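Job type: complex structure
Entries:
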Amino acid sequence: MSDDDLDLNALNDDELVEQMGDDLYDGLKEEIEEATRILLDRGWTPYDVLTKSLVAGMTIVGQDFRDGILYVPEVLMAANAMKSGMSILKPLLAETGAPRIGSMVIGTVKGDIHDIGKNLVSMMMEGAGFEVVDIGINNPVENYLEAIEEHKPDILGMSALLTTTMPYMKVVIETLIEKGMRDDYIVLVGGAPLNEAFAESIGADGYCRDAAVAVETAKDFVARRHNMIGARANA
Amino acid sequence: MPEQTPKDSPPAVRRSRSGGRKGRAERTQSRRSVPSIEAREGAAGFRHPEKPLIIICGALGAETKAVLAAAGLADAFEITALPAIWHNFPDRIPDGVETKATQARKDRADRPIFVGYADCGTGGRLDEVCERLDLKRIAGPHCYSFFAGESRFNALAEEELGTFYLTDFLARHFDTLIWEGMGLSDNPEILETMFSGYKRLIYLAQTEDIHLTRLAEQAAGKLGLEFRREFTGYGELGDFMAEVAP
């Protein structure tokens, strides 16, 4: 066995979780799958494996992406590694009824085929315990309406990479207002050319500069929403 | 779960099985050692304060000089460039332009300065800098649009939204800027993730150059996209230079 060929089974739980953080960071898909299975075999609940290893590891990846230490290709590799772990955990999470934080419909707007950032957000949100319905790229307003009517999510997420396509987010929000549906959903927007001021000007609830921020923003809004619903129920 | 390791120090335990991969500590070190524009250029890098200045994208150097030469304006401007690799990092462009413009006006406060960029993915942030410092930039969303001409570019996008574009510069430097610059050489498995939305590659050619056409066609092959070449010449870049000429 070479130095590089580490036996994950030989690590105790803390070491293995730390190693998973490293392996996620390095985008090592097979190692993440193996470590996920080992933790499950050791009696960890799927939810603990998800939150204490995969999500924790991806949080560091997200922070380093935000700080310019990691670039998109590396984050994609990390996200793919996480996805492989998630594919093992997902059916188990459904069986065990793990806590679900909220739900989201997300898609790239009409005229825009860029989906890397959106896909990262989807994966990170799933990892954080959200149910995510990804409607893909180049979505006219009708697609958003159809998806939110079908899935009744807490959050509508819109993404755009181009200066020329980001104004379409306003079209979607205005349509929601016209139909009297705007207040039924938390609207979060993101994408490279956007900023806080743009999000505010189109009437979105929040701007998410990257996938890690998207998760935190979504959690925050959903918690506030639940609090409001709770307060109304108790009034 | 162990506590999160501070960004500036390597994790206490590293058993990376990653072989050629870098790991967090090394990436942190290398990414932070990239010198800033100011550090590389110094504050007094301009030699002709009497001339108007053009701050261009490094990917437009040859094209700008060709356009100016053809118009008899070869010596009319001082030209300075920002790194072409910022094609991949548009968020750096506004600050880079601002740094250059501010440096240039240390020598001459009323110096006319023009910007050889379109919006180029800056989401209006470049426009904010231009407005604040009274700079004029090339109209349009990006170089593909001003080379092809706005209406032609819109027609191409309408025809097939999933189009990836190359210019002469990008065809010549495809391997450095795209293949390696976007991490595809190290991680070919992300090709599908990054390019799944694209169907074809159009090489917007500024010059008649068989070698560049061949390189562009090879690039399309690497990305698994249909190839098409469309000759544009210098398009609206020439109009811009003519408009701002002294």
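Summary: Chain A has nine helices and five strands. Residues 100-235 of chain A form a domain with the Rossmann fold fold (CATH 3.40.50.280).
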